[in-house]
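Consider what follows.

. . .
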Amino acid sequence: MDAHALPLLKLYETVNKAYVIPIYQRPFAWDARKAEELLNAVLQDANDNAKITSLGTLLFCNIPGANPFGNNTPATVAPSTMWEVVDGQQRLTVFAIIGHALNERHKALVGVGLTYSPPLEFDMLFATSRTRAGKTVPVLIRDGDNYDIGFSSDLAMMLNSFAGHAAWPVGVGKRLVETCNAIGKWINEELNLSNFASFSDHFLSKCTVVQVVADDQDTAFTMFEPLNSTSEPLTAFEVYRSKAVRQLTAQFPKTELLLAYEASKRDEVISRSNTLIFSMAQVNSGVRPRIHFVPLKHYLDGQVTATFIAHFEEAADFFRTVWLEQTAPDAWFNDEAKNCVRFLKAVSHDIAVPLILRYYLTRRVDVGRVLKIVVAFYSLWRAAYPTNALPKTYRALLDPNSADDVSIAGRKALKSPVDLAAYFKGKLSEKIGALAPGQTIDKKWLHDTNLTYEELKTLCRLFIFINMGATIKSNLVPDDPWTSVDDVEHIFASGLAGAPENLHCIGNLTFLPDKVNRSLQDTPWEEKREVYAWLASPVRGAVPANYASTGKPVPKAVKDFIVDAASPALGHLAGLAARTTWDKAEIDARSTAMLCRVWDVLHNSWLNP
């Protein structure tokens, strides 16, 4: 590690050196106002004869080995020394544009009498000379540019046009054009025969940067917080992509679709990138790096292989089309699979993601069944027991030291859905524990379960679906059944006086259309019985204006739903409507019946694929 405070001219006095902006850096992001603020600060300090103007820190690292930006032949025009710009691309770009604008202004002022020779040629801020052919080439390029083959980035093509080797490139980014125009306009308007020399001398000799050169990229990112010039944290993927492009010319179209740079906030990009790498590490070899830039980067440094990149791309596709959007076109990704994903997201059961991803990468046809197995296992466990032991259960499936390891790099075969279900059933049985004489495992689970809507809303919704016979999908709710809460009905209304202590238990819950549900708020049981009977009947008749039991008006939303020919008959309410009373005893009995039904579906069916 080497660090020095340097006047700007010292940064450019080595004629055979250039700077590379790596692919992980985003495009130029400064706006014209920011560049003008820098110029105004320099002019003010020049007028005040200030001793120094600080332009911040520039962080570089060496690019070892053969120069990837030329053809490495004796005839190459690529500079022999290349430094990677870890932090500072925005300022270096602005310095180059200022150098060009000062160069043009100098020519114009010399024509009207200026006698001034700058301490450093202005064009050295945007071009480096190669003495072999005397050809100037850009001092600043981006990954993907090649000095011998040609330039593809807006930045390099712009600097090449400054040197007079090509016309101004077509289609240059808006920010770059606006900043270039603003700097040229400012210099033409603010600098004249009286102040051009003092401004230029101050800019080149008294504007100071702290140049930090790390021995390698690891050192750069370990010793310094990984920020680029827009103060936006980098991601480990962005650094990895740069290395993979250089070594393997790898492309990452699916990963870029997932990260959606232009449409996403930076913290979303970072979160998605970290989740992708963290999950891939577990799936690939059972490694569990901390979700932090440096450990994730260190893990990826050892994964620059075509096979890993192919899996990485497919993993990105999983997170985008399956986990985030639920748009995957595969036949196995039916409505039931989609709603399993939505359920797992709603309960934040993220520890299951690497396991599901493992099947997606190598045995995709089984993912639908794996989703149901995971949902069943989690739901039965969570309804009765705390989740602190769940991570260990999942990690054993992706742990090279475990007999159940199924990681890609592991030596054991991927479990079939039947074997995976047996594994989870075994873990659930261990958690349920020893049975009393004559006690069955389902009765022990039922005894341990105390499922309430106050604590586990999403799980209650799933259990209501299953009790209705709708498994995990209902025509009463939106496409995503875990985001709406207006359709969960407390049968004994929660706002009524004398509410039983088991008010929020699963047995007191059902589904109603959201508008109907809201209209029945704090409605007593005798009135609800009438509504349930009307809603459950497959034969629709006229709805009376008033309840027969109390004489109170029937809500408009109830009448509108029933008279609408498109409204379905809600058969799941028929059994409730047949009850004459509804209180604690009825709720307890229904809770037991519902949980028995759920056990039968999840344990005896979903965990027996």
